[in-house]
Amino acid sequence: MQEWFATPPGRYLLAWEQAQFDQAVADVFGYHALQLGAAEVDGLRANRMPHRWLALSDPARTSRAALLTDFTALPFGANSLDLVVLPHSLELSPDPHATLREVERVLVPEGRVVICGLNPASLWGMRQRRAHLYRKLGVGDLFLPEGGEFIGYWRMRDWLRLLSFEVESGRFGVYRPAVRSEAWLERCRWMDRAGERWWPIFGAAYFLVAVKRVRGMRLLSADWRRAAARATAPVSIAGKVHRHQSDQTD
Fold it and tell me: What is the pTM of this model?
């Protein structure tokens, strides 16, 4: 998607997604965070974890240091990462199910996964499907990058639920029409606000934050030591004497 992100609609999408990632990861705490794919998006820019990695599935022209790895076999142990961000990583993966299962494996319990994807039920998705039909006739070009399969918002939520993720938040964005002209995109700026109000589920992109839940596990609150101390505290001698005198009176 590197070249496409340099186009006017690509820059428009990139700006929206970067803002979503900055907001979503700013207050996610831990030690280890990973971004899979799309080096053009700095999904961990606003996060403060001491160890942050970018992983790519193939060599790419990027100035950022990156790990070259298979997304279905990540070089991290089970339950070792606190946060994983996936900017278009699943829809461009040859095996999105295996990639998501691998993300579940490496995340710690209560760890978070942040996903953004292109919405097939949008003006952009409709134009892409029409372009595919025209290409079979030997005319026209694709509007969006070629490769992979766009995964619908509700379908993505179903995949997460099957892997015991709980969706914490979800939203749509990017409501301007599927045009390549910078001028027309600017003329349609008003559609971003109107789309959020009147047709929110038809945004060209969606954004999800989900938490890995583990059955039978309950996280203890920060004051568990104080609560345990109160539960095991000895009863005062005065209290025992008072109860003994009361029993004799009865």
Answer: 0.82
